[in-house]
Write a structure and sequence with these properties.
Length: 124
Amino acid sequence: VQLQASGGGLVQAGGSLRLSCAASARTDSSSVISWFRQAPGKERDFVAGIRRQGGSTKYADSVKGRFTISRDNLKNTVLLQMNGLKPEDTAVYYCAAGRPIYSAFDQSGLYYYWGQGTQVTVSS
């Protein structure tokens, strides 16, 4: 398994969750790890991305100020801290690894590796 996502669960609106994406050595050539999410009946949307060297980040407008993406290069792990969760954040969250340029972080087709997804459910 190249990417292992974990940390999802059920939380009330306003609560917090932290997702973790553990990357195997096979993904070392991928300079960017991002989180995407997909709600039932909807397309997969970009949430946040981080460059593994340098740490530059990018967020979807819908999560700015609430979500924080970070990396631990020693552990080859990327975290997504989600605060102030809303019911509309309910989705399956996927981590992905690839080499997109910064302006294309949100393009899912540019990612080579995908994790299995973890369910996040926010109740109102």
